Amino acid sequence: MDCLRDWPEPVVPVQSLSESGAAVIPDRYVKPQSERPSLDSTADKNILGIPIVDLGGLAEGTAECRATMRAISDACQEWGFFQVVNHGVSRELMERIRDVWRGFFQLPTEAKKAYANTPTTYEGYGSRVGVQKGAILDWGDYYYLQYLPQSARNYDKWPILPISIRDTIEEYGREMARLCVILMKVMSVSLGLDANFLQKAIGGDDVGAALRANYYPKCPQPDLTLGLSAHSDPGVMTVLLADDQVKGLQVRKGGEWITVQPLPHAFIINVGDQIQVLSNATYKSVEHRVVANASSDRLSLAFFYYPKFDLPLGPARELVSPDRPPLYQPMTYNEYRLYIRKNGPKGKTQVESLKAM
Questions:
Q1: Hey, is 259 helix, strand or coil?
Q2: Which of 22, 26, 82, 225 is the most buried (most CB within 10 A)?
Q3: Buried b / exposed e along 81-103 (16+ C-beta atoms within 10 A)
Q4: What is the spatial distance between Cα 170 and Cα 166, in angstroms, rounded to a whole number?
Q5: Could you give the count of Cα atoms lying within 13 Å of 179 in the half-sphere of its Cβ?
Q6: Verdict on whether the full-model pTM lies above 0.90
């Protein structure tokens, strides 16, 4: 589409605005009053946290395995978010992937701009999502790259600095894909389906995956803007390695925004829109956002797991009955993701628009 060939205005890295030392953020980043965070609200003090699941239980005896699966099922129904520990990914790799991406974002601006992205594929270094001219922007930069299927990788868009970054991305991506396959099996069984049902439904070995490194620079007026606007993720699931030193992720629960307290060396898992559709809303994707910070920058790494592009996805027939008719119309992921690529993050408006009349 012509509207996705280039950005409607010149893209300014947020990091350069932050490092300029200006005490006021440009108007382009000031959110409407209704979208601004309440930084002194109860969200940060709320003792209620997203569930924590020990995946070590999956390798234990039958009772422990069932309890772990039940915990994941409950989290998918009640929260759409949970943290996992004992996930099998080495702490050394988790620290290394953070270090290489932090190193990348500390490179000179011109070195990063050599990888500048366009809205055609979003691959590369960028600072906005959506192509609406005059849109209010988020206070964050990012780097997005395709990981699966392997045939879709564009190594010209993989950075070469810091020196070990490509090998680290490759290794990290393998571990993330392995973890996603495990979680897909757990979700399938928890829904009363065959263990491989969800994986087959989204394309089997032909699925897609992408990595997005998010960099949220310090912001002089964090009460006026957001690092990332409220949205649900369009894919199947997201595995997030959050910054465990600087909080920022908030999840909507019962009309309130709950600040997530990341555990060291844990991953945060969230249900994507495609799981909500496939499960006929038994499991639900949930709105989340990122608040800005006045005193510290923040880095997080999101691994997006999504269906083969051209497969029409609708509710699983096994989860449809006269008492629970299909809630969503089938759509391919290629069609589905165009919405966010054109409009940027907009709450849950897209998945709601799929509802069968």
A1: strand
A2: 225
A3: bbbbeebebeeeebebbbebbee
A4: 6
A5: 30
A6: yes
